[in-house]
Specification:
The chain is an alpha+beta fold. It is built from four helices and seven strands, in the order βααβββαβαββ. Bound molecules: coenzyme A.
Length: 166
């Protein structure tokens, strides 16, 4: 797979020093927040899919993922290794330039390298930009969880079968 990153942007694995920057981006982009120890535990257990994008030396986007085991949704349910997109976000002023795409495509490659057969995620049913991004990269809506979020909004569960080509 060829990954084209927009000019001036650098994608790399996250380090411990990046966690404050990730927490900042999360705090201004999403209503779902996590404790610092949660971020650190994901970084230490799933470093390959904890990714950040830098622009002019500052972190402007991240992807936090975790390898899990569970049933597939599409076709006959099978118990498989899955790549869970826990959280992905890009600062507003850097959106619509392909940063979200590069973060997710890179994470999908890493999940596949680790032997995941599918990737899945939950997304607010009103989050059109994110749903579009996921559909563009081959995820399909496979379930709807009523009242999944703290404010009562439903979530779609989206799943993508992992292949070597995207
Ligand atoms: C979702 C998000 C990560 C996308 O990041 P991004 O860097 O803007 O994404 P890209 O530029 O790679 O866009 C890829 C595709 O996503 C879709 N998309 C992105 N922004 C969109 C918007 N505002 N409206 C509709 N579709 C949009 C489009 O299909 C786009 O492809 P196109 O530009 O060729 O039309 C970003 O909007 C974000 O950080 N949102 C807030 C956090 C969030 O909701 N995270 C997801 C939680 S589940």
């Amino acid at each position: 797979m060829v990954l084209v990153i927009p000019e001036g942007y650098v994608i790399r694995k996250a380090k411990e020093d990046d966690i404050n920057g990730v927490i900042y981006i999360n705090s201004v982009t999403l209503p779902e927040h996590y404790t610092t120890s949660f971020y650190n535990s994901i970084l230490s257990t799933n470093p390959e899919t904890f990714l950040v994008v830098e622009y002019e030396g500052r972190i402007i986007g991240y992807h936090m993922g975790r390898i899990e085991y569970g049933l597939t949704f599409k076709g006959m349910p099978r118990f498989v290794k899955k790549g869970h997109v826990i959280s992905i976000a890009v600062l507003k002023e850097h959106r619509r330039k392909g940063v979200g795409t590069i973060l997710l495509k890179t994470a999908l490659e890493e999940f596949a390298k680790k032997g995941c057969e599918v990737s899945f995620l939950e997304v607010r049913i009103s989050n059109e930009p994110a749903i579009n991004l996921y559909k563009k990269l081959g995820y399909e809506i496979v379930d709807r969880i009523h009242g999944y979020y703290n404010d009562g909004e439903d979530a779609y569960v989206m799943e993508k079968t992992l292949e070597t080509k995207f």
